[in-house]
Hints:
It is elongated and about 40 Å long. The chain has helices at residues 7-15, 19-28, 36-45, 49-57, 60-78. It has one domain (7-78). The protein is built from five helices and no strands. The chain is mainly α and 91 residues long.
Amino acid sequence: MKPESYPFLRIAREFDADYGDVLTVAHIYDARNWDRVRFGEMATTYHLESLHRIFIRDDWRLIWNRLVDAMHTQREVREGRIDWQTGEWLI
């Protein structure tokens, strides 16, 4: 399994977060105007316990940057620029 093929799973493993929590954040939120307060509110409001632990450890910015990168990677896969099986650029 290439990390480029499953970027959200890679993030969940890296931060010991629930895969569903990571997908929820990626699905609901976009990459604009994030700060510590908004991340904490999101984790609390949606009862995303594994992300709340990350918020408490103050790793929220690191995981958010990884999520933004993963969202960009997924867009590239959907648009056919990255092979989803190998993670290699096609263009």
